[in-house]
UniProtKB/TrEMBL annotation:
UniProt source species: Lentithecium fluviatile CBS 122367
Span list, region Disordered: 1-36
Domain of life: Eukaryota
The name this protein goes by in its record: S-adenosyl-L-methionine-dependent methyltransferase
Bias kind Acidic residues: ranges: 8-18
Length: 200
């Protein structure tokens, strides 16, 4: 079951996406906090953020025009920071309706009707991010539906203790690298797993 949002041109950014929440007007978006040197907790963002962590994530995600899809973007703070200067990644955040998004412009935010829905933009995305996902099944369902598409890399970020539940989402066709977040600007108990699709 997928959302009917398959008309997105990942390189076209001038106008809001067709499914944009009209209540989100870009000029009214809150200002982005300046990234801190040490991991800092922000309201509505499970992951503690820092400048070094953001810089590290840019090494994992595709450069423009490559598209990174963040599934379950919440307030969208992490994604909006990655979209902004100096990182300028092409990140689109997906949330469940009614969206909790605060920071992402409509042009880079999409919604699905419920937690069991997937966004078909996954098929066009070079990378997916799952930051503090709530349900292993969501990653499984994206893998089953879209792993054969353009996706080359899946970045999972969450508590180290949760990763053992998620590693099984990736089969033999994926190489997994795991990094403790504290080594790259995050908190000690958080972890970044990078699954890279192996050549056929
Ligand atoms: C624990 S929150 C993490 C939010 C954010 N990534 C963060 O780190 O603060 C998980 C988010 O996933 C969203 N979610 C659940 N099912 C989803 C789905 N099928 N598609 C998109 N988002 C989904 C929820 O609405 C929720 O905002």
């Amino acid at each position: 079951m997928t959302a009917l949002h398959d008309d997105f041109d990942p390189e076209y950014e001038s106008e809001p996406a067709a499914d944009a929440d009209p209540s989100i007007v870009e000029s009214r978006l809150p200002p982005l906090p300046a990234p801190s040197a040490k991991p800092t907790v922000h309201p509505g963002c499970c992951l503690a953020l820092s400048g070094p962590l953001l810089a590290y994530l840019t090494t994992l995600l595709p450069a423009r025009p490559g598209l990174a899809l963040s599934v379950g973007s919440g307030y969208g703070l992490l994604e909006a920071l990655l979209l902004a200067e100096p990182y300028r990644l092409n990140v689109v955040g997906v949330e469940v309706q009614p969206t909790s998004n605060r920071f992402l412009p409509a042009s880079h935010h999409r919604t699905v009707p419920g937690t069991r829905f997937l966004d078909a933009l996954a098929a066009e995305s070079a990378a997916w991010m799952f930051v503090y996902p709530r349900r292993v099944g969501l990653v499984d369902e994206y893998m089953a539906a879209y792993a054969e598409g353009k996706v080359e890399r899946v970045v999972w970020i969450g508590p180290t203790a949760d990763w053992e539940d998620y590693i099984g989402c990736f089969g033999q066709a994926w190489e997994i690298q795991v990094t403790g977040a504290n080594g790259v600007g995050g908190r000690a108990w958080e972890m970044i797993a990078v699954a890279t699709k192996l050549p056929p």
